[in-house]
Structure formats: structure tokens, C-alpha cells
Amino acid sequence: MDSRRPTTRFTLIQKLVVSYAAMLFLTTSALIFSVMGIYSLNSTAKEIARTDLFNIDATNRLRDSMLSQERFAGKYVILDSPEFKQMFHQRQDEFLAILDQMGRRSNDGNFRAVVTSYDIYRKAVARAFEAGISKTIPAQREADQVIVQIDKLAAASQKQLNRKLANADRRETATVRLTLILSFSGFLLALSIAGLFIHNISRSIGKLKKGMHRIAEGDFEYNPQIPTGDEIGALADDFVRMGKKLKELERMSLDASPLTRLPGNIAIERILNKRLLSGEPFAVCYGDLDNFKAYNDHYGYIKASEVIKLTGKLIYETVRQVAGADAFVGHVGGDDFVMVVAAEQAAPVCEAVIARFDDFIREHYTVEDLAKGAIEGVDRYGVARTFPIMSISIAVVISQQNEYASAVEIAKTAADIKELLKGTPGSNYLVNRRKTNR
């Protein structure tokens, strides 16, 4: 019993697909994370450029504009020169335009505080302008408050920018780290897969190579012990079956006749027992060459052996042609042959074999012997006799279900039929004591 058990349900192709799919997933994930990281950093850079850097630059311009407004307002109320008032209003419009641009991007508490303090400052300056000439800079306290709020807005904008930059640095580091981890994992996975496959295939090929050497040495039962489940396992199964088949062929070869190469007694007994166990009707045809000993004595054993060899080939080809590939032909030994066919094919097989043998055997006699229709010789008792041209007698045993218990019984019945046939001249066959002559 084969002790091997399947270790996997995947073929080599399936394992390769699954393994490289995992590697592709890791590589693709690394690429996706890298692209997402770049996209995120790009979005952060755009946001910083659109909002934070603008706000920082705008707060600087607000501060410069506020200081300019203080100077022009002071010069106007002290010198009462209209051009300073005009310059003040230009700076004021500039300041309001900057606030408007900033308000479109953000409107947090610090920004609103700047707007509120500046509104107070504008009203205070307007009152100072209405009051006329003064010896001091108008709305000094309100101007200082605006500057304070602008500085707070600038500090908040700078803090927010620093926070975004730090966050961007963290995302960049995380993206690079994760991309490297996934890429390296995919690389290691690819190396592991390649190494594992090379190792397993190399080891399996080594086992198969060892098995080939063992079989060449005659160990047909050697099992390479390769786990089943993939193509190499299937190849190992085929290898084991090949060994069993070779062992069977070796046994058949040892049992086969060295002259005709037809299966011998062991194979004949096996096929008869197999047919008996099946319970199906079948026919066993025992063929025997008449006057073969006299032919051997007259023409010599080389010529006689050639006749036996060619007769075996003739019977084999004829039976296969008439009865098909399921028919069996064996060589008991000497001039005895066995044909196992379906019951209904017995008569056609016997008639075809007899017809072809009678034509064939005449080619192996001299013209003189054929003209006489016989050869001179001595029988087994040393008595000189005249022996007719060689013929073939076929004893046919039809086995119905449970009619015979063993191959021995069939052989005994065939022997009895052959005794009846021996007294009849010429080639003929007899089916269970019913004879048909040619």
C-alpha cells in the first residue's frame, strides 16, 4: 500500500500563480503607497503655497502698511498737508485689499481680531482728521493694538506652517519606510519562491534520477517518496506505475517462450483464472502441431525451430485479426499453443488459423516431399514410418459460468479432446467433443 499522502492540492502552476500574485500585491501596494505619499505631499505643498506662505507674506505687508499709515496720519495732523492724507488713504486701501485677500483663504479668530482692531483704528484716525491740527500722532494706542493683532496672526500662521511641514515630514518618512518595507518584502518573497521551487524541483529530480538507477539495477518496486499533488508528484506516480509495469513485463518476459516471445505457462494460468473469476463465457483453444517430431528429425532442429517461431507469429496475428485485442495467445512449449477468446469467436478463430497454417506449412517442405505428401522417419518407438505433411489440431473448451473450477480442469478437458483429434488426419478442431473437419 502506498504510504504517501498528498501534501497540497495546488499544482506547480497554481502555486506559482498564488506566490507571484502575493509578490505582485506587495509590489503594487508599495507603488500605490508611494504614489499616494507623493500626491499627499504635493497637496500639502500646494496648500502651504496657497494659504500659509501667502498669509505670512500678507501679515508682513499688513505690518508695513500699518506703519506707513501711522506716519502719514501723524504728518497730516501735524502739518495739515493734503498729500499726506491722500497717501494715508492709499495705504488704507492697500491694507483693506490685503485683508480681503486673506479673508478669502481663512477667517479664523486671529484674522477677525485684526479686522476688528483695524476698524477701531480707522474710526479713531477719522475723528483725529476731523479735529484738525494736533501736536501728537493720532490713534497711537489703537495703532499699537492693530500691530499686536497682526503679530499674533503672523505667529499663528508661522505655527500652522511649521505644523504642516512637520506633518509632511512624518508622512514622507512613513511613506518611504512603508514603500521600502513592501518593496523589500516583495523582493524577499520572490527570492524565497525561486529558492523554494529550485530546491524542491532539484530534490525531486534527484529522487527520480536515483529511482531510474534503482530500476536499471532491477529494483522495480522502488518508490521515490515524492509528495503528490502537483506535476512532479504526478510524474512520481507515473514513475511508480512504470516500475510496477516493468516488473510485470519482466515476469512475463521470464515466463515467455524464448523462441516465440509469447506468454508462457504462468501467464496462461493467470489469464484463465482471471476469466473464470469474471464469470463471463469464454473459449480456450489448445493448438498442437501433428507430426512435428518427424519433421524435426527429418529437417533438423534449426528448421523445426523456425517453423515453431513462425507458427507462433501466424497464430498471434490471426487471433488478433479475428478476435480483436482482448484475445490472448500463449505458448505452452514445444509445438503447443493456447488461444483464449470469446465463446462465440472460437469457431472463426480455429477456421482462420487452420486455413492459414495449411498454406503456410507447405512452404517449409521440399518439392519432393510435397509431391509424395509425406516424409520418411521413425516414431517414438524406433519403428520406421511414413508421416503426412504437418497439420494442426485445435481442442476447444467452452467455459460457461461456474462450469470449471480451475485452469487445471480446463487443461484436463482439452487434453481429452486432443486425444480424440490425434486419430483424425489433417488439420481440424473439436469444440467440447464436437469435431469439425477440413
Automatic annotation (TrEMBL):
Membrane-spanning ranges = 20-41, 178-198
Is Transmembrane helix among the key words of this record? Answer: yes
Manganese as a keyword of this entry, yes or no, is: no
Q: Which Gene3D superfamilies match?
A: 3.30.70.270, 6.10.340.10
Principal EC category: transferase
EC number(s) on file: 2.7.7.65
The record places domain GGDEF at: 280-435
Q: Which domain of life is it from?
A: Bacteria
Keywords per UniProt: Membrane, Transmembrane, Transmembrane helix
HAMP domain location is: 199-251
According to UniProt, the name of this protein is diguanylate cyclase
Query: From what organism does this protein derive?
Result: Geotalea uraniireducens
Q: What is the lineage of its organism?
A: Bacteria, Pseudomonadati, Thermodesulfobacteriota, Desulfuromonadia, Geobacterales
